[in-house]
Amino acid sequence: MSRRRKTVDGLHGLEIDALLDDRTVEIIVCCGSGGVGKTTTAAALGVRAAERGRQVVVLTIDPARRLAQAMGLPELDDTPRRVEGIDTKRGGHLDAMMLDMKRTFDQVVLATTSPEKAKVILENPFYVALSSSFAGTQEYMAMEKLGQLHADALADGRYDLIIVDTPPSRSALDFLDAPKRLSSFLDSRLLRLLSAPARGPLKMFSAGMGLVTGMLTKLLGAQVLTDIQTFVAALDTTFGGFRARSERTYALLQEERTAFLVVAAPEPDAMREAAYFVERLRDERMPLTGMVLNRMTSPAATHVSAERSLSAAEALTEAGRHPVAAAVLGLHGERMRRAAREHHLAERFASAHPGVAVAGVPALSSDVHDLDGLREIGARLSGE
């Protein structure tokens, strides 16, 4: 099933409905920088897919909680919650959930170690800090949760489509980088040495490690260092599966059953970041399906040029006649100019990335705050 269409302006348009109807697609990842409508796009895709017959869960990592409000849910947490008000005539349904970073980390610990060792780890102050605020933990746990969701969906058939709203990022795809960073940190030689500085084959280094430990004690404090040593000593095989699990999920993201959508806005900075996302996804051999260009300006009377409108507005103003008409003409002229700038940005992007399909979404007159608003976004995504 084709996911492209030729638009009248020569750009390759993205067929959103073809993507949502493709049952071989099991994961859609919405990625992009902050403030471009990524969360709203993920929610709108979830609503449209469910009403076209898919069994959908939307996982958001955005802490702003806008998804819950738009879907009429009192709150979102780590448990999938059914969205009411979805048209289920085609057999679909929609659940939504928000990543709970620490709870997901705790679940990893409980699932991979004995109850006794899990208690030691979960109560360790260093672990509490690591699981709550360590740089990259949120993105890593997003990968963990995605892997869990996908495995569960295959096991019980509860879902056939997972839509992921990734964390906003200004430094490429932290969502992809975090597992490597976190597993490398947990496997680092320093942490391993700290766990047993004078045992076994490390005895020859005990004097040197004593100096290092003494220095770290001065910098961190004895209790902090003890917490770190206790935490690392409890690792053993508990976190030995970190790298293996992240590699499995990473490989899953590279398969054809995953579709990446880069979400952007028609602004120079956002388009530059979108171009970087596109290039990075290609470098990582991720299946890039296309780009969603949100909040496009769509003037009503396109047959009246910007120059003509602004000229008429200026003439009326100078003559002191019809101030309302002059204001309307001036507003239309500015909108036409803005639309031209946005179209130029889109064309420049298409020229630099000719293989990337684009779905342009005209801006709504108001913010999205309910299911009807999400349906409207979905319809505009699909070119209706």
TrEMBL record:
> Coiled coil: which residue ranges?
none
According to the entry, every stretch annotated as the ArsA/GET3 Anion-transporting ATPase-like domain falls at: 26-297
Query: Could you tell me one molecular function GO term of this UniProt entry?
Result: ATP binding
InterPro entries associated with the record: ArsA/GET3_ATPase-like, ATPase_ArsA/GET3, P-loop_NTPase
Q: What is this protein called?
A: Anion-transporting ATPase, ArsA/GET3 family
What organism does the UniProt record list as the source? Actinopolymorpha singaporensis
